[in-house]
Amino acid sequence: MDIVYQGMAAILKWLFDLSSMIGLPYWGMAIIIFTIIIKIVLYPLTWKQMQSMRKMTDLQPKMKVLQKKYANDKQKMNQKIMELYSEEKVNPYSGCLPILVQLPILWIFYRTLANFPYGNDASVWFLGFNITVAYGFQLSYHLILPILAGVTSFLMTKVSMATSPNKSQPGAKKDTAEATAEQTQKMMLYVMPFFMAYIVITLPSGLGFYLITMNIVSILQTVYINKKLSAEKKEASVD
């Protein structure tokens, strides 16, 4: 794996040189640029994920019919649902792709940050943080980083729920699956911010800048993609 970490370190070094050329010679700036590039590269997967989620939502009425029709034959019901996915060209597992890709990137990035030869100069400082240091639970200015990680995680989940086509109408009757999904979303809304804040508290602050930037760009992408998908659906219904 050393060659992978060395490759990641070389990319960060190149981005550091690039940020230095524009007058911002900070490793923290290189991390932010790297994170934005990763989100741009993963945009096609994110688009595919959200498009699949939208199609899955549109198929809900047909799926409910199948579930009701084959309620006493689970095997037949699953077969019919898979046939429906195939006919509509929907992959129910495509929603996992961005997460599966991002997890190894996050791990490689963490290992690279932990072993990177930054040197002991001013470039490791960014917005009052030494990006190689984990500040822990000490009551200081540095708590702002985990707080921002928690807040942006909350907003990211909130935006996803607010713009999701799965959002239930107030007063609408929900079946068991819908009620369970809604409870899971609510749990993620309040649990994930604390989890993200804990990660940022216990790891080098450079990783905190990575996660916060990732959240902010994800919020912008979620809003943009949902608006674009809604516009496409509206245009298709007019045709």
Overall morphology = elongated
pLDDT below 50 for ≥5 consecutive residues: which ranges? none
Helix- and strand-based class? Answer: mainly alpha
Strand order of the largest sheet: 1-2
Average of the residue pLDDT scores: 83
| Gyration radius from CA atoms, angstroms | 22 Å
Strand percentage lies at under 5%
- The total count of helices amounts to 9
Q: What oligomerization state is this entry in?
A: single chain
Percent of residues in helical segments?
over 70%
Tally of strands: 2
Helices and strands, in order, run as HHHHHHEEHHH
User: How far apart are the termini?
Assistant: 52 Å
Note the main sheet.
2 strands, antiparallel
Fold and architecture overview:
It is built from nine helices and two strands. Helix content is 73%, strand content 2%. It has helices at residues 2-21, 27-41, 43-58, 60-69, 74-87, 97-115, 144-163, 176-202, 205-238, and strands at residues 125-126, 129-130. With 239 residues, the protein is mainly α. A hairpin with a 2-residue loop joins strand 1 (125-126) and strand 2 (129-130).
Output the keywords:
239 residues, mainly alpha, two-stranded antiparallel ribbon, 9 helices, 2 strands, 73% helix, elongated
Chart the SSEs and their pairings.
Blueprint lengths: L1 H20 L5 H15 L1 H16 L1 H10 L4 H14 L9 H19 L9 E2 L2 E2 L13 H20 L12 H27 L2 H34 L1
Antiparallel strand pairs: 1-2
Helix pairs in contact: 1-2, 1-6, 2-9, 3-9, 4-5, 7-8, 7-9, 8-9
